[in-house]
């Protein structure tokens, strides 16, 4: 695998009122990655908080980014950071909530549709391509007739909160596997369900 720089964008909404919502699980995963790398997020001119570091000694260089825009406007900060650091879209990883897979499941893919996820749609538009990597963190489908938007903007349930550290840990492992061993190997390990 190449040792190029990777941009890992954890999607979510800014501010403490959204911090524990299902929609912000991507940013929760970045907090786990940041704890592994060491260091603190700093504000960047791209309207994101970033942390630069390496995955292990001599490992790949990562730019962890939390866009500080609302989810639907994630593309600008992601594209600006990719340009600033000279990172090709093939080395951009969006970590995001995914209602189409069960809670506690993590899957990886390259490109494809956005499945109604406005954050991904905005990133595709800003990068000019859908061909970037996605770490899809399962939050499950809304119960009954609850609107999807209402569901993802709610905090995880009491039961889910018990398993949330395992989910964010698994998603962080998936990012590590992706940058260290490539998509195919990471999919074999994580896309099993």
UniProtKB/TrEMBL annotation:
PROSITE patterns: PEPT_TRNA_HYDROL_1 (PS01195), PEPT_TRNA_HYDROL_2 (PS01196). TRNA binds at residues 18, 70, 72, 118. Its EC number is 3.1.1.29. It is an enzyme of class 3 (hydrolase). It catalyses: an N-acyl-L-alpha-aminoacyl-tRNA + H2O = an N-acyl-L-amino acid + a tRNA + H(+). Pfam families: Pept_tRNA_hydro. Keywords: Cytoplasm, Hydrolase, RNA-binding, tRNA-binding. It is found in: Cytoplasm. One of its GO terms (molecular function) is peptidyl-tRNA hydrolase activity. InterPro entries: Pept_tRNA_hydro (IPR001328), Pept_tRNA_hydro_CS (IPR018171), Pept_tRNA_hydro_sf (IPR036416). The active site is at residue 23. Its main location: cytoplasm. The record marks 97 as: Stabilizes the basic form of H active site to accept a proton. The record marks 13 as: Discriminates between blocked and unblocked aminoacyl-tRNA. The keyword Hydrolase applies. Hydrolyzes ribosome-free peptidyl-tRNAs (with 1 or more amino acids incorporated), which drop off the ribosome during protein synthesis, or as a result of ribosome stalling. Monomer. Belongs to the PTH family. This is Peptidyl-tRNA hydrolase. It comes from Paeniglutamicibacter psychrophenolicus. The lineage of its organism: Bacteria, Bacillati, Actinomycetota, Actinomycetes, Micrococcales. The gene is pth.
């Amino acid at each position: 695998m190449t040792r190029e720089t990777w941009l890992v964008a954890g999607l979510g909404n800014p501010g403490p009122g959204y911090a524990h919502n299902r929609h912000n699980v991507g940013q929760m995963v970045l907090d786990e990655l940041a704890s592994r790398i060491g260091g603190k997020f700093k504000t960047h001119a791209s309207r994101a908080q970033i942390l630069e570091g390496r995955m292990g000694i001599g490992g790949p260089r990562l730019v962890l980014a939390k866009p500080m825009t609302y989810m639907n406007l994630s593309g600008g900060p992601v594209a600006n950071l990719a340009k600033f650091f000279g990172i090709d879209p093939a080395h951009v990883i969006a970590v995001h909530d995914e209602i189409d897979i069960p809670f506690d499941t993590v899957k990886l893919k390259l490109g494809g549709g956005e499945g109604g996820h406005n954050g991904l749609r905005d990133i595709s538009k800003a990068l000019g391509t859908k061909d970037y990597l996605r770490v899809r963190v399962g939050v499950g489908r809304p119960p009954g007739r609850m609107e999807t938007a209402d569901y993802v903007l709610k905090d995880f349930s009491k039961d889910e909160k018990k398993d949330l550290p395992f989910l964010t840990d698994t998603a962080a492992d998936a990012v590590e596997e992706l940058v260290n061993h490539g998509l195919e190997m990471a999919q074999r390990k994580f896309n099993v369900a």
